[in-house]
Known about the structure:
47% of the residues lie in helices and 9% in strands. The protein has 14 helices and eight strands. Bound molecules: zinc ion. Zinc ion binds next to helix 12 and helix 13.
Amino acid sequence: MTPSLQSHHRAYGYVMLGQSATPATGQSTAGQTMIFMIMALIILAVVIVWIFDVHTVLHLKARTQNAGDAAALAAARWQGISLNLIGDLNILQALALSRGDTAAAAQITDVQARLCFVGPLVGLLASQQAAKNNRVYANPDYTANLIAHADLVLSYYAADTNRFPEPYAGAWSEYSGMLANIAGQGVAAGPDNTWYYTDSTDSHWLLSRNFYEAVAGLDWCWFYWHGLTTLQSYADYQYWPGLPAADPANTHNCEVFGLGLLPFTTILPGGAETVARMNRLRAERALSTDTISNEVAGITNTWYGYAWTSWSALAPANDFPILPLQVKPEYDYAGADAVIRVEAQPDSRLPAAFPSIQPFLIRSSPSATRLTQSAAAGGTVTWTAAAKPFGYLTNDTIRVRPDAYAIVLPAFQNVRLIPVDAATGSNIGAYDLDWRRHTQDHLPTYMQSGQAGLEADCWYCQQLQTWEDPAFRQQGIDWLNDTNHPCIPPAGGPGEHGGTRRGH
Ligand SMILES: [Zn+2]
């Protein structure tokens, strides 16, 4: 045993036993040793907490990422299944029309209208299960949010069927019931690209999360691409155009994981060529041995078709993460995809004795800036992921987009994760509850009274406060006045991994 260790023991004994009768000769040494011991204990504690905390945070990240990815894939899979079913029903409808059975054709249209809701909601249910299988459990705030929306559908939507026309008889009570049923089992995976019928399609900066992130990240290129004039001419809050009123809604698609379809009454688009394609799919999928007659091409009927766009056209400016050239033509479509948000709390096993160390550790973990903000809420880890059904039709020799024939045909074979920024409605943040509070509660006040209406503890309000500072904006103007600024379209391709911490 070394002399120093002996003195450790002696000092320890003195401290523990509270001995006051310390021999005068050993007092100084014992005091120094005691300070050393306390230092060593603190260092040891910091190391233990550090290892434990880093382990916990890393483990938690893996768990939330797996849960988010699995939930997004489950939702997108059901979008693909629903689209294939609606496509099969278009073929069966053509067969009915071939036989002159218009009553059956009308019934099929009704089933298709229901599938536009039931299919995505089964996807919502499946995504909850996928998240829970990965040990991310029901989030009380998410659950409350979905319950509140189910109530809104039953009251607000159902009460004003002029503004929110039912896609089929009894739709709103049925839809509300399904939402409430899913909420009743607890919402773990928030459907983040949910598009409420009351949401606006306006691209007002104050309603774009990208604006706040550009302010927070000093991303002057965002301003360069989205409106340099606003950066240069902004004086105060009265500069903003008024917040847009909600758009009259297209109520044919489910708000959650909508399929982007529309019923349209017309003769068959594509005529005889579409009939030939349907006959081939009918045989391949063993739907019937009867042949669809070419006369169907001339019959007026209600078909379910696509209201999709090209994937590369999603880009609002030059900040789209997928370059058009990198998307194969048959996959260059956008209209049905799923964005999921999951949150998980670290297990609260950290010793309460280290309140000053804990936030430091969480802040120092390698992740996006917004994790810092959530440290106050106990180190919540958030993950958003996006997935999309993939498929194509073959036009004899070449592959074409699933919507190449305008009407829905069974075309989907696969589902894959995509970058969140390349998903439709990725900027909505329907389950980013801080964001919804900001847009619904804080912005109207700000538009009335400027900075006085901002909330100090809201991250988005904090960015607005920064934006209001003329010196902040001048910094960007100066930066962009340098003609060597690097605001060129970003390179990048379709990532293998679809998730992100963006906007947390
Ligand atoms: Zn706010």
